[in-house]
């Protein structure tokens, strides 16, 4: 069996950044396994701009952002294998992979970094009634067809879901000559960035209908029309509000799901909220030596945060490997909790003795909050109380914890993040 | 007097801003709740600009399309003219990231450049 | 040419008759209006091999069900069809109705169903812990099973084809006439076909063909059944097929594992006029959620990956219509095949081929090929065996469908084999590529690429399932977008 110090599953933005930082931390034998025919992951099809403002202080397109990291991987001569599918990861970090050229083989990994990304929620999971014709695409599949393969799914488009990919595709399809008739969003607010609503919809006069959903799909062989209707506060369609749009394409942008089938095989514990692994301050899962970062851990809205998170995962995996692949002794562990409006935190636990001097904790809220406070409690004592003009489910939030402050409190058990009105 | 309504893109607040103009002069900006909104509204009303991203046909490459962008912003009302030029262009692989695909698109002084590499095949 | 037998319909019934007829020295052809076999009712049903206790004793349904169930084991072995006798429960949840379970048991005995037991509450719950808290008891039928309905249909068609039966797709029979010599003329959208005998296996349209030639008319109501398929992670919620007690509307909404490890809920029973109306409705999906928990608790509806609907060919008399129509010699019905049609199909094939070969004196072939193999599933191989395979055929080393772990090799096999796939759905039904939790979001562009390369089909002509179900419309960039 071949062996590597670190095996990274996925060559998208998370995997690339993790690899570079692990190398910078002094690990020699690193291998990236990528199932596509090139590195870069989903960024290659995200040809719009707006990436990298935090990381590079300039606006890049997806492929350009990916290339910055690919270049670093190439310069550092980090090994990677393309067109390679990882079939299994075991609890003791044996990675089983397969490709046309290499067949099926196993790799013993000193550490594993999960960086598989996420997938789109399909029509079936949305329980949309109607026929099952051709012409229904998840927005990302359409994005690949249009941007990489150079094919138009259709000419008249209805989009369900106002996530960023849906908004971006509304503009892309319009620029390529299609007529996007409407974007319907089940929730009373859009999960997409304001900038995308303005520049992808308003710029082209595309209506966004909030609190609306698709209630019928017509067309036995190919989509011919879609009916949308307003929904009540329980998200149930309101009879009498139906509007029918003739169209040949229905795009779905209804949420992303971290892709953790492999993680589960390795015995990694999952969060029911994020559908990603439960991790500690080192972004390490419950299985020693298996780390996670990027959209496989929790769905991000900015790739810059993916890169930053992945760099930490890479550095921590390196630390694990360089320490001989054994767990550093457990120190003072505190639990992180999300309550009253905060939905989850990443990480879920912090070992104060092992944490860096500063630790970024990311979380999301479950609803739109205006003029509210993000509060942080150390056990029962409120230690942070930051006013926010707006908090929205589509925008990832963060707080930064100082090791020094945490270490001061002797019996600290729980750190709680809450959203408070005052 | 002319009145323009717009949504601020400065942050998730998405303030609805009203700008009042006369003879191309801004009289007032209302509805914003911070300075970013004021600045955004003035720019957006007087000189709305956008970056255009799309793809260009490639011959002899490992992919049939190469992704491209305008290397800077172009006037918003020229987006579809820009697309016409982009759609009409055809390049030969290989293509390197940053290669100029169209010079001075729609007389904007801005080039359209490749945003990825395409290898030549065959 | 004049065929000996033409079968209208390449669903599971038509394929079963074709396979049985392929044993004989006869010219047999199957006409199918779809682009592939298994494209009507056969692709959207409960995928259950019924034991046979709930058919009316003495009916053709009872006879064919019990015989079909009996044949299924050997058939599955010979044609490499995923099949398992997982057993079924009919669960009583109302104390006062427990007598109904005994009645079913007695009916099963009359029908000759082996291996039935009546279980009390404790016995039932011990075997199926997720049964409803109201469980009173259950009828346990050990011979009931679950099967891959696509493979059953496709395998019988492939088997017929390798033994000499012709198939014509995209060919819809429109008019049947019989000339003075007793030869049948079938007008289709693709020209005229002549034959000595016709088998009417046209599913929900079987009344149309029957009524063209028969004096005693039949009437088929398309009875829609909505289904939900749940993720494999919850496939173990029940081990056996769980039915509520039957009502006059049918066997009710069942919950079962599928042979591939998903959890399956359905069907509803909604009577329609339109023979193509396979759209699910809000009403139907809501019913599945409201009534699905009659017998099973904590159904993990959150894990649904797709929903769909199929049409049962429900005849007013609720009985299979089989055999030659007296006033139309040479016209043989396999009409009104609704549940337990899938289970009964091998028996209907055997019965119908039997009366046809007797009438025309067909002789058995000497070189009949008795077995065929399914698309190879490398997941069942050891690493060493898999590497042997990849060395010979590298395409088996490249995964195309990540959810179901389906390789390019399997997809190529599905395209290249007899009656090979021509569409995304054709590949899905033969290999399961696109049938997993992402519902083809990831693999469809990749499968299109393989279809394009293997069949030389332009992308614009690749379809989901024939007809106008094209996936993409045209190239980007208008007239400038084509190849150089």
Describe the structure.
The complex is a heterotrimer of chains A (422), B (122) and C (484). Chain A has 422 residues and is α/β, with parallel strands linked by helices. Chain A is built from nine helices and 28 strands. In chain A, helix 1 runs parallel beside helix 3, helix 1 packs across helix 8 and helix 5 runs parallel beside helix 6. Chain A is globular, with a radius of gyration of 22 Å. The termini of chain A are far apart. With 122 residues, chain B is α+β, with helices and mostly antiparallel strands. In chain B, 18% of the residues lie in helices and 37% in strands. Chain B contains two helices and ten strands. The mean pLDDT of chain B is 93. In chain C, strands 1, 2, 9, 10, 11, 12, 19 and 20 form an eight-stranded mixed beta sheet that branches. In chain C, strand 15 and strand 16 form a beta hairpin. In chain C, helix 1 packs parallel to helix 8. Chain C is globular, with a radius of gyration of 23 Å. Chain C starts with a strand and ends in a 9-residue tail after the last strand. The mean pLDDT of chain C is 95.
How would you summarize this macromolecular structure in one to three sentences?
The complex is a heterotrimer of chains A (422), B (122) and C (484). Chain B is of the alpha+beta class and 122 residues long. Chain B has helices at residues 35-46, 79-88; strands at 2-7, 16-22, 25-30, 49-50, 53-59, 65-70, 74-75, 90-92, 100-102, 112-114.
Keywords:
heterotrimer, B: 122 residues, alpha+beta, five-stranded mixed beta sheet, three-stranded antiparallel beta sheet, 2 helices, 10 strands, 18% helix, 37% strand, C: 484 residues, eight-stranded mixed beta sheet, five-stranded antiparallel beta sheet, 12 helices, 23 strands, 29% helix, globular
Distance between the termini of chain C: 45 Å
Number of strands of chain A: 28
User: What would the principal axes of the Cα set say about the shape of chain A?
Assistant: globular
The mean pLDDT of chain A is 95
Mean pLDDT of chain C: 95
How helix-rich are the residues of chain C, as a percent range? 25-40%
Residue windows where pLDDT falls under 50 for at least 5 positions of chain C = none
Instruction: Name the pair of protein chains with the most residues at their interface, and give those residue counts.
Output: A-C, 53 and 56 residues
For the largest beta-sheet of chain A, the strand count, sense and barrel status come to: 7 strands, mixed
Q: Strand portion of chain A, in percent?
A: 35-45%
Distance between the termini of chain A: 59 Å
């Amino acid at each position: 069996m071949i062996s590597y110090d670190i095996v990274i599953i996925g060559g998208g933005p998370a995997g690339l950044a993790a690899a570079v930082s692990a190398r910078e931390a002094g690990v020699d034998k690193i291998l990236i396994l990528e199932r596509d025919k090139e590195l870069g992951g989903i960024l290659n099809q995200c040809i719009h701009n707006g990436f990298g403002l935090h990381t590079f202080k300039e606006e890049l397109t997806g492929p350009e952002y990916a290339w910055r990291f690919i270049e670093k991987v190439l310069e550092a001569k980090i090994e990677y294998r393309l067109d390679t599918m990882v079939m299994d990861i075991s609890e003791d970090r044996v990675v089983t992979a397969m490709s046309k050229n290499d067949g099926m083989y196993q790799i013993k990994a000193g550490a594993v970094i999960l960086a598989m990304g996420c997938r789109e929620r399909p029509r079936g999971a949305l329980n949309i009634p109607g026929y099952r014709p051709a012409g229904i695409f998840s927005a990302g599949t359409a994005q690949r067809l249009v941007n990489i393969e150079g094919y138009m799914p259709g000419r008249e488009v209805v989009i369900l879901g106002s996530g960023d990919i849906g908004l971006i595709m509304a503009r892309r399809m319009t620029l390529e000559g299609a007529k996007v008739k409407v974007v319907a969003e089940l929730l009373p607010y859009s999960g997409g960035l304001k900038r995308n609503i303005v520049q992808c919809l308003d710029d082209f006069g595309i209506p966004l209908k909030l609190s609306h959903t698709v209630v019928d799909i017509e067309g036995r062989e190919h989509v011919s029309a879609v009916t949308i209707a307003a929904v009540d506060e329980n998200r149930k369609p309101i009879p009498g509000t139906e509007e029918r749009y003739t169209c040949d394409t229905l795009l779905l942008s209804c949420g992303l799901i971290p892709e953790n089938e492999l993680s589960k095989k390795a015995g990694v514990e999952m969060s029911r909220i994020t559908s990603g692994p439960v991790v500690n301050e080192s972004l390490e899962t419950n299985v020693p030596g298996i780390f996670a970062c990027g959209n496989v851990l929790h769905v991000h809205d900015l790739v810059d945060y993916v890169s930053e998170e992945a760099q930490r995962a890479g550095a921590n995996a390196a630390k694990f490997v360089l320490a001989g692949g054994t767990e550093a002794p457990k120190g003072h562990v505190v639990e992180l909790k999300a309550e009253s409006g905060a939905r989850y935190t990443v990480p879920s636990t912090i070992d104060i003795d092992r944490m860096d001097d500063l630790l970024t904790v990311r979380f999301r809220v479950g609803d739109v909050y205006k003029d509210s406070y993000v509060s942080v409690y150390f056990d029962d004592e409120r230690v942070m109380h930051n006013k926010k003009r707006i908090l929205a489910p589509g925008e990832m939030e963060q707080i930064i914890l100082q090791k020094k402050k945490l270490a001061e409190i002797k019996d600290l058990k729980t750190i709680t993040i809450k959203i408070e009105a005052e | 007097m002319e009145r323009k309504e717009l949504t601020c893109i400065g942050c998730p607040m998405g303030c609805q801003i009203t700008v009042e103009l006369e003879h191309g002069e801004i009289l007032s900006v209302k509805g914003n709740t911070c300075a970013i909104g004021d600045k955004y509204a003035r720019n957006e009303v007087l000189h709305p600009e956008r970056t255009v991203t799309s793809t260009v046909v490639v011959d002899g490459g490992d992919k049939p399309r190469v992704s491209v962008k305008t290397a800077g912003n172009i006037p918003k009302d020229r987006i579809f003219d820009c697309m016409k030029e982009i759609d009409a262009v055809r390049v030969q692989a290989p293509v390197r990231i940053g290669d100029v695909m169209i010079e001075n698109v729609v007389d904007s002084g801005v080039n359209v450049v490749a945003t990825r590499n395409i290898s030549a095949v065959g | 040419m004049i065929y000996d037998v033409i079968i209208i319909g390449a669903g599971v019934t038509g394929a079963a008759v074709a396979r049985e007829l392929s044993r004989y020295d006869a010219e047999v052809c199957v006409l199918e209006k779809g682009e592939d076999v298994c494209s009507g009712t056969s692709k959207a049903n409960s995928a259950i091999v019924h034991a046979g206790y709930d058919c009316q004793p003495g009916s053709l349904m009872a006879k064919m069900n019990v015989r079909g169930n009996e044949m299924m084991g050997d058939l599955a072995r010979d044609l490499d069809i995923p099949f398992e006798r997982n057993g079924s429960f009919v669960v009583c949840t109302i104390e006062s109705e427990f007598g109904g379970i005994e009645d079913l048991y007695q009916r099963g005995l009359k029908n000759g169903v082996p291996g039935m037991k009546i279980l009390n509450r404790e016995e039932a719950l011990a075997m199926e812990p997720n049964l409803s808290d109201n469980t009173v008891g259950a009828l346990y039928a050990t011979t009931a099973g679950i099967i891959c309905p696509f493979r059953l249909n496709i395998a019988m068609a492939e088997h017929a084809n390798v033994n000499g039966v012709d198939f014509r797709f995209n060919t819809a029979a429109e008019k049947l006439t019989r000339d003075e010599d007793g030869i049948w003329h079938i007008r289709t959208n693709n020209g005229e076909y002549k034959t000595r005998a016709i088998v009417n296996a046209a599913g929900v349209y079987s009344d149309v063909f029957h009524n063209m030639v028969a004096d005693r008319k039949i009437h088929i109501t398309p009875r829609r059944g909505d289904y939900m398929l749940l993720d494999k992670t919850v496939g173990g919620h029940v081990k056996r097929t769980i039915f509520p007690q039957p009502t006059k509307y049918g066997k009710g909404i069942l919950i079962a594992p599928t042979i591939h490890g998903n959890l399956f809920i359905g069907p509803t029973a909604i009577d329609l006029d339109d023979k193509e109306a396979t759209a699910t409705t809000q009403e139907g999906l809501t019913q599945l959620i409201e009534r699905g928990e009659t017998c099973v608790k904590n159904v993990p509806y959150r894990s649904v990956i797709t929903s769909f609907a199929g049409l049962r060919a429900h005849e007013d008399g609720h009985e299979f219509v089989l055999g030659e129509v007296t006033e139309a010699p040479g016209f043989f019905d396999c009409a009104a095949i609704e549940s337990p049609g899938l289970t009964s199909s091998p028996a209907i094939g055997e019965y119908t081929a039997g009366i046809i070969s007797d009438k025309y004196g067909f002789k058995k072939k000497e070189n009949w090929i008795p077995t065929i193999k399914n698309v190879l599933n490398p997941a069942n191989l050891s690493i060493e065996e898999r590497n042997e395979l990849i060395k010979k055929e590298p395409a088996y080393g490249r995964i195309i469908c990540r959810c179901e772990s389906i390789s390019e090799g399997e997809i190529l096999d599905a395209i290249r084999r007899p009656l090979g796939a021509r569409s995304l759905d054709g590949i899905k039904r033969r290999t399961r590529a696109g049938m997993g939790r992402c519902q083809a979001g990831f693999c469809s562009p990749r499968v299109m690429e393989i279809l394009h390369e293997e069949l030389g089909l332009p992308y614009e002509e690749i379809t989901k399932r024939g007809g106008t179900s094209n996936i993409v419309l045209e190239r980007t960039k208008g007239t400038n977008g084509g190849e150089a």
